Amino acid sequence: MKRVKTYIPGLDEILYGGIPERHIVLVSGGPGTGKSILGKQFLYNGLTKGEGGVFVALEEHPVSVRRSFEHFGWDVRKYEREGKFAIIDAFTGGIGSAAQREKYVVKNIDDVKELSENIRSAIKDTNATRIVVDSVSTLYLTKPAMARSIVMQLKRVISGLGCTAIFVSQVSVGERGFGGPGVEHAVDGIIRLDLDEVEGVMYRSIIVWKMRDTKISMVRHPMDITDNGIVVQWDKYLKMTNWSVSIQPLPQKDVDEMKKAVEEAEKEVEVKVEEEE
């Protein structure tokens, strides 16, 4: 199984080496949980390793998207100039002087075919292997019955072109679903981010709910958002009750298995690079 390493500290460990190639992964969570940061970090890390990337902006102006990357010191403008990174503007509808300077613009947000064609063009132009759609929920908020169908249409295009993708999905505070009826069955993987308040203290956590074709960690891990992005405490788990929270070490057997899986994935990446050279 070929894997795409996220290079997000701790995430590849709990994925036992990374995301299987061509998988579509739903990153779900409430407001403030770090969903968009995780997606952007995944994209930027790929850019630094020579992989092209495409960001589909459905809820944020492209100018704000670039600014949010820069907040963490991630200079995506450099890769845009080199033709390795593209932003698809599916937010403005082409309205405004800044929007008119964008190369990829979706005029009708409700037209999934138009969005798919823009994604197809951007992938080919940048030779992208990593895609982030933020947030896919926007496409079916007013038509929930179409959620699975819309996700499947995008999946066919993105996976068919050999890309691995993160679809950011929104849920309400306290909601334990994944943001759309049937969506959880259409995607290949689900990563859930949470922000829980216990006794007046907020705790961030991450759990891999499902991932086809690979072993995954079966516990909830503590997670931090730092000045450099997301960091997962992969060798610990969060033990929560209604009245208490504690961070416990993982059994050494699990730690050793995760380390071994990441090392094997790194060897696969090295072999792939050598073959390309």
From TrEMBL:
Residues 2-246 form the KaiC domain. Keywords: ATP-binding, Nucleotide-binding. CDD domains: KaiC_arch. The keyword Protein biosynthesis does not apply. PROSITE patterns: KAIC (PS51146). One of its GO terms (molecular function) is ATP binding. SUPFAM superfamilies: P-loop containing nucleoside triphosphate hydrolases (SSF52540). It holds the Pfam family ATPase. The keyword Nucleotide-binding applies. This is UPF0273 protein M164_0801.
